[in-house]
Amino acid sequence: MVSHPASGKAPSPASPPNSLSPSRAADFMQCPLLYRFRVIDRLPEKPTPAATRGTVVHAVLERLFDAPAAERSVRRARSLVVREWERLLAKRPELAELFTQDGRAAPGEGAADGTELAQWLARAEELVERWFSLEDPTRLEPAERELFVEARLESGLRLRGIIDRVDVAPTGEVRIVDYKTGKAPRPQYAAEALFQMKFYALVLWRLRGTIPRRLQLVYLGSADVLTYDPDENDLRGVERKLLALWEAIRQATETGDWRPRPGPLCGWCAHQALCPEFGGTPPPYPLMIQPRLPLEPDGGRGDGTGSGTGTGGEGGGHS
Ligand code: SF4
Fold it and tell me: Per residue in 126-155, pLDDT tens?
């Protein structure tokens, strides 16, 4: 059995997907083969400095609210960066590979001048500090932080994810907030960015019976805040889109037909070497392929969206 190059652990056995998170939904929309590699094959991906910094920054913004409101200062937040990095490193020692022991960059991770780790931490502190120009944590009292949510739609499809922050106004109105360490998208890509937030809004609506009043994306990379107030039509539209997506995933799972869809993000794909678009060969499909009926009647869709069929397996998708 292949072992995880970073953790040394054997990967968990392949199983059909049984739920959908915003990131995996985005994967499938970007490239079905990428979704397969991540969800079905569960191929390991090496951590990157940028993604790891995102994890640290999120942890800092969460932890800062442990302090009383008046003590949520820039200084305290900056000081949390190293603490959260060390805490993360203790949980995931493989992250040490991002930097050599003396703080230099690992090969291929930038200038090996002995200051790489310090620069990386300084950048994280900068992002944390920038947040204070966008929101004032001394005036916020989040109802929830890093909230795991999961809801089952009538069709059986399970939606799940983790919401960075939920604010509830004295009037009861709910605001969902998500932090991004990157830059805000250009206006023509804003809809894609909001899709994740509408996904969460749909889950909260299904769980609590009330549509969140506002969705708020906080871009620390460019100091932008993107907000959107969803309505019932929006969320019903997202639900329809997710059901169609899940049906496409179900069919691909059963047939093993996961098409690569090359695009500008291929440069970031950790699995290029296995991708036919780049001369690679995917590993053997680890699930049983179910032959298609020669002619499928209209009603062949069934609900088939997670409560049974090939998608009702054990716990799989995670955000
Ligand atoms: S390299 Fe591009 S086309 Fe190939 S699997 Fe990755 S995202 Fe898909």
Answer: 999 999 999 999 999 999 999 999 999 988
